[in-house]
Amino acid sequence: MASTQSSSSGALPVVDLAPFFSTAEDAAAARARATEAVREACMDTGFFRIVNHGVPREFMARVLELSAAYFALPDEEKSKVLPAEGSSSTPLPAGYLRPPADSPDKNEYLLVFNPELVFNMYLAEPAGFRDVIEECYAKLTNLGLLIQEILNECMGLPPGFLADYNNDRNFDFLSLIRYFPATSAEDTNGVSPHKDNTLITFVLQDDVGGLEILGSDGFVSVEPVEGTIIVNIGDIVQVLSNKKFKSPTHRVVRKLGTHRHSLAFFVNLHGDKWVEPLPQFAANVGEAPRYRGFKYGDYMQLRLTNTTHPPSNPEDAAGITHYAI
Ligand SMILES: O=C(O)CCC(=O)C(=O)O
Ligand SMILES: [Fe+2]
């Protein structure tokens, strides 16, 4: 088993996206440097931090503040937007959820899908919540497209390849999360170690901390830095790149005496898409594929069983190794 030790020295590579919003003459060279930094981060840990990403700091703070106000509502209120069984065209039902009581994950969350396509479930309170969350959804969707374009370049794919492959925004979703305070030094699990089954994940977090990445010497915490967005690539990129780019294992550890609020935005393929190592990373370079192909929706279903039927041993949770050759 991986070491569960933590250290607090987790400095993620910082990628400045300003040149992607600039028409200045020297922006092209700066864009190339940022792209190279993303490439190195993806091959190294799969995690990086972005700055000058176009989502204003005050806006991010407002989102987390409204999220805290939402979760502070009484349980009876929040439960009014429990998703209706089987009512959803999306991969998961929209609405407020808590992991089952026997889950080791001690958190609660609200899932929001593409507001242009889906009726999301909201309460009347807190005031302004819906507009701000939907604006956040739109901003992170656009940011996802930019990161995807950068990844396309890092992976040496033909221009527009990923945009064309991942051309449907029905399976993306946003999760507002509140972690409960730890009750003892033993009871700290917030989210068990996992890799994201995504293409790209964004995390915004408050100043409490608790997100940790598994490195070669155990888990390392990702310190909160106001106004920055944490990015990690997910299993889809790991498979497409035939494991050249890493989908990192990470977890959330709860802190004593305080709730933690975060927002995760998941950029996903449509469930009907086929996922397998691309020829650029396999046949064309004489490498054997490390994964067999699968339909993305099937993998999502497999991963859902970890939530609906948590394995008694967390190490037995279903993951991308299911398809490993
Ligand atoms: O809350 C966080 O910081 C990350 C949550 C996470 O890893 C996930 O929802 O997949
Ligand atoms: Fe995650």
Automatic annotation (TrEMBL):
Domain Fe2OG dioxygenase positions: 170-269
Sequence similarity: Belongs to the iron/ascorbate-dependent oxidoreductase family.
Stretches for region Disordered: 82-101
Keyword Oxidoreductase appears in the UniProt entry: yes
Protein name as catalogued: Fe2OG dioxygenase domain-containing protein
MF-aspect GO terms: metal ion binding; oxidoreductase activity
Record's keyword annotation contains Iron: yes
Keywords: Iron, Metal-binding, Oxidoreductase
Pfam families assigned: 2OG-FeII_Oxy, DIOX_N
Cofactor: L-ascorbate
Signal peptide: none
